Each structure stands twice: as C-alpha cells, then as structure tokens.
Amino acid sequence: MTTLLAFHEVDDVDHWLSSPRRSEFFGSMGINVRTFRDMDDPNRVGLILDVPDMAAFQEAMESEAAAAAMKHDGVRPETLVILSES
Q1: In terms of CB atoms within 10 Å, which end of the chain has fewer, N or C?
Q2: pTM reported for the whole predicted model
Q3: In sequence order, what DSSP letters do the residues of 68-83 get, joined into one string?
Q4: In angstroms, what CA-CA distances link 42 with 3, 11, 57, 70, 77?
C-alpha cells in the first residue's frame, strides 16, 4: 500500500466536495481517499490516498476517464501535485 498526498485547485470547492465522481473513480481501484480544503485559499484542496496498486493508479490517472472526472469536478489539472510518502 502506498500513501499519497495530492493537492490542486478547483473552480468550486463545494461542488468538488459533494461530487460522487472522486469516489467512483478511485473506489473502483480500491483506493481509500480522505479530502481536505485549504483554510486560507478557497480554491485549493487536498487528498490523502491509500493506493494498493501504483501501476494501476498511474495508468488510470493518464486515462480519458481521469480527465473527464477532473473536468466534471472542476479540477484545474495544471495545478495537480502528487507526493509519495517516503
């Protein structure tokens, strides 16, 4: 199991938090996700992801399904940063 910390900007935090797309996308790979919002920046959010298969995660993140889920949730993909626990 690999633990990742991801953060990025979104257009609308409330929409992002309430969207089922994140759970659908990551849940299908057995990834547990915890969500966070930046108290000082209303458009910045974060996630802690427990990833059982990094190869599957990396492949999925490059897919059209990931792009569609991010677009639906208002994610600004160019702001995405993912850190791996060391």
Answers
A1: C
A2: 0.88
A3: HHHHHHTEEEEEEEEE
A4: 25, 9, 27, 18, 17
Query: CATH number of the domain that 35 lies in?
Result: 3.30.70.100
Q: Provide the 8-state DSSP code for 52.
A: S
Each residue's pLDDT tens digit, 41-79:
989 999 999 999 999 999 999 999 999 999 999 999 999
Torsion 69-47-6-13 (CA) sign: positive
Domain span at 30: 2-84
Dist. CA 86–CA 83, nearest whole Å? 9
- SS3 assignment, position 38: coil
Closest CA to 76 of 20, 19, 7, 10: 10
